[in-house]
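Worked example 3. Consider a protein that binds fe (ii) ion.
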Amino acid sequence: MLLLRKYVEAYTDQYKKASEDVQAYVESPINAYLLVKRLTTDLQVVQDLIITNTESIADIDKLKPGLKFPSDEDLNGAAMALARLQDTYKLDTSSLANGEINGVKCAAELTAADCFELGRQSYTNADHYHAQLWMMEADERLKREVNQTVERSEILEYLAFSTYKLGDVGLALDLTNKILELIPTHERALINKVYYEDEIATRNAAQPKGEDGSILTSVQNKTEDMLFYEALCRGEIKPSDEILAQLKCRYTDNGNPFLKIAPFKVEEAYLDPKILIFHDVMADNEIATIKALARPHFKRARVKRYTTDALNISNYRISKSAWLKEIDHKHVADVVQRVEDMTGLSMETAENLQVVNYGIGGHFWPHYDFATKGDPKAFNRFERKRIATVLFYMSDVAQGGATVFPYLNIAVWPKKGTAAFWYNLHSSGEGDLHTAHAACPVLTGSKWGIYDTK
Ligand SMILES: O=C(O)CCC(=O)C(=O)O
Ligand SMILES: [Fe+2]
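Given these inputs, the predicted complex is written out as structure tokens:
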């Protein structure tokens, strides 16, 4: 009973602290992780909090009644989001643990136990690369901790095993010997020692292990395509000078008399396929209305599996969506009309407007907006081919969050009030395979968009 009271008190304190941190948490993935550790309830809440943040203390307050201790699943989601950010934006583990992102201090420091927890979760995901990084960091931090937050032998055990999985048996053995210096009777260490020594003796050591079918997030396991995608997200890749030289900016009225007075400001981002950026196409008050209308209806985005036709939550698309109709508000109808004016395409076949919010770590892996060949539904008469896509940005994003086209080497950076527009199909009606695109993970801040396909 006493123990229970202690838990509740500790938790209440954590909760208070977490609420104060909300603003800071919006700024930093590390704070997001700490926040999840402090007040998660269930997976849905983690998704709301860390993955697609809710931006306000009122939202956090709503969670109060259901508070429970963070589950393994919650912490796991947080660790995966952090690993994604770490890889994509080449974030250094020690700096992250110091609460720094790209040289700017924006979060509290992690304890050795926090680092240990991140390592343990990575290990559970068979992500031995990040497990090793975080366990090494935990060990470093532990040396400096007066009140030690975790047992060194536990760190060393995970560290030895991930090191072994990454192929360095010699180091795994050294680490295991260190455990035995601390606890000479450590049972698992004694068994592993013999095992590692055997491996070394049979010179079987060079082979990295660990193909157990689980998620591969380690840098070692990344394909060239993934590494290229991440470089694009970091803004390191550009189209050739020849291609850039052909791009123009212009005013356009699309032959529409109404637009003669206020033509659109259009910037070409690519010519074939045509990708255009429209500047200043949403007013601040429209953005405020649309965010407010969408907020109560947000649900974690789901992805259709064509094999089962079921809509699933998936790690390759992490964001919240809500759908709005023209009748919901004049501002929605105005935006729908604007899409028609911008594109010259009728909105009759369009889906409702999808409002999307990505929080820290939120992203959408490279994909097409039209049904691809392998998808039997592509030939279903109910499944429309999406001719074009319009994407309005309703926020700037402090760091990360670009829309990138991996086959075209271009990155479009979100800017409040602008919109990107592209055709997904060739004029023949066939899908244009160069239109593959993705939403890079948000590193700091929050990304808001309206997504409309027609
Ligand atoms: O948010 C983005 O940058 C792209 C989103 C997207 O491609 C989609 O929702 O289909
Ligand atoms: Fe898309």
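Take a moment to read the result before moving on. The chain has a mean pLDDT of 79. DSSP finds 16 helices and 20 strands in the chain.
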